[in-house]
Specification:
Distance between the termini: 25 Å
Number of helices: 2
Radius of gyration: 10 Å
Structural class: mainly alpha
Shape: globular
Helix content: 55-70%
Largest sheet: none
Oligomer: single chain
Order of helices and strands: HH
Strand content: under 5%
């Protein structure tokens, strides 16, 4: 995950949620977002 930029990580997370991908995959992305202390806007 360290190779993924913050922007790309957030975009990947939002797209995964939009496409309703595997919940475990979304959780992995979210855990990394949380680890980096990035803001997540839920709608």
């Amino acid at each position: 995950m360290a190779l993924l930029s913050d922007t790309m990580l957030l975009e990947s997370y939002y797209k995964a949620v939009e496409l309703q991908l595997d919940k475990e995959f979304i959780q992995i992305l979210f855990n990394e977002i949380d680890r980096r202390k990035l803001p997540v806007i839920l709608s």
